[in-house]
Amino acid sequence: MDRHDFDIPITFKHRVIFTRDAFAADNSALANVLIEGGGRRVLVFIENTVAASWKNLPDHIQSYFEKLDFDFRGVKIFAGGEACKADENLVREVWREIDTSHIDRHSYVIAIGGGAFLDAVGYAVATAHRGLRLVRFPTTTLSQDDSGVGVKNAINAFGKKNWIGTFSVPFAVINDFKLLESQDPESSISGLIEAIKVALVKDGEFFQWIEANVTALSHLEREPFEECIKRSALLHARHIALGGDPFETGSSRPLDFGHWAAHKMEALTNYELSHAEAVAVGLALDTIYSQKIGFLSEENAERIINVLINLGLKTYHPALDWADAKGNRRVLAGLDEFREHLGGELTVLLLSDLGKGVDVHEFNTTILEQSIEQLREMWELAAH
Asked: Among 216, 260, 284, 362, fewest CB within 10 Å belongs to which?
């Protein structure tokens, strides 16, 4: 046996930029980051709902790059939403446009849209020519405070969320707060669930800030709303860059607190239940379970649930109680699917305190079902 092991140090620069009206003539944030990379050719993809809300956006983008003397290859508009991740159709369309526009590794692809659209376009960009330079423009609260600043891209397959995908660090992420103004109020608020999540697992003081500002956040007051998104995005980015496992080679996913049930409920409802709504329910479930097994104090569990309720987020969905032919709750299969996604033993993060998580490797099904029943009873009581 003749074995040779080599440690290859690989580093990435993860650029996250916060601005407003990025394509305004006097805004140099985007230009600076593109010039830094040295490329000149640019192709832009926009989600159709964003283009419909900002009808002059394609013209503004073209004007922006013409003034900078970039080799602008146009704006392409495609449908987004969770449906764009259901198959490879969007991915193949993006590949086709990349090929037609002669985009190479020194070029830039800019993707402007919500989390699902960025996931699908990002997967196409990460696999074209084995990886191109992607600049993400998240346009929803959920994508600006969480997924848009991450390094993952994916589409769904085999009835499972994010089964086909890549880890690929974007060349840059531009969080343009102006683009959030086209969201409806419900989506604007529900997207804050990922800020609550990361605060609960990473920064107890941030959770206390959210708790103190919950009324202002529920009214979408601009300054605290944007501050919440920024703090959440930076916590997510810092974990990815400095947490020691950016590409999830282990079995722990601390940023997926509350997600094992959320992903399963999304699939069970054929994605009629949005990701934000599902995470709110999943987070509430794992909070109650953490309290019932003695990890989390009853007082802190109550504080967490109250923040969700005060933001108008649902803490229960009937999918939690849907049963298979044998009478077993179908959502519980999400635990096995969560384990299979990474391999190895089941590893789920629960809470031991505000801002402090603890990994567990098994669930007590009886207590988990009691937690679901408690959430249902709380929801029914509130409804009456």
From this structure: 362
Asked if 144 and 89 sit in the same domain, the reply is yes
End residue of a domain, out of 182, 212, 228? 182
Domains identified in the chain, total number: 2
**Within this chain, do residues 41 and 170 fall inside the same structural domain, yes or no?**
yes
**For position 147, what pLDDT does the model report?**
87
Q: Does residue 10 lie in a domain region?
A: no
pLDDT at position 144: 95
Residue 47, strand partner residues: 78
What residue ranges of the chain have pLDDT lower than 70? Answer: 250-252, 342, 384
Statement to judge: residues 169 and 286 lie in one domain: no
Q: What is the H or E stretch that residue 211 is in?
A: helix 204-212
**Could you tell me if 132 and 98 are in contact, meaning their C-beta atoms sit under 8 angstroms apart?**
yes
Q: What is the pTM of this model?
A: 0.91
User: Domain check: are 222 and 138 in the same one?
Assistant: no
Structural domain for 151, as ranges: 16-182
In a shared domain, residues 266 and 223: yes
pLDDT for residue 163: 92
Q: How many helices (H) and strands (E) does the chain have?
A: 16, 10
- CA nearest neighbour of 29 among 42, 41, 16, 39: 16
Instruction: With CA atoms as reference, report the closest residue to 112 among 64, 87, 78.
Output: 78
> 146, 166, 182 — which closes off a domain?
182
pLDDT at 342: 67
Residue 319 CA to residue 176 CA, distance in Å, equals: 35
pLDDT of residue 250: 66
Helix (H) or strand (E) holding 154: strand 152-157
Closest CA to 160 of 287, 41, 333, 31: 333
* Cα–Cα nearest to 168, from 153, 183, 190: 153
How far are the Cα atoms of 114, 264, 366 from residue 328, in angstroms, in the given order? 35, 14, 12
Question: DSSP secondary structure string, 246-284?
Answer: TT--SS--GGGTTHHHHHHHHHHTTT-S-HHHHHHHHHH
How far apart, in whole angstroms, are the C-alpha atoms of residue 203 and residue 196? 10
Using a CB cutoff of 8 Å and minimum separation of 24, what contacts does 240-245 make?
Answer: 240/14, 240/149, 240/150, 240/151, 241/14
The C-alpha torsion from 239 through 243 and 246 to 247, rounded to 10°, is -120
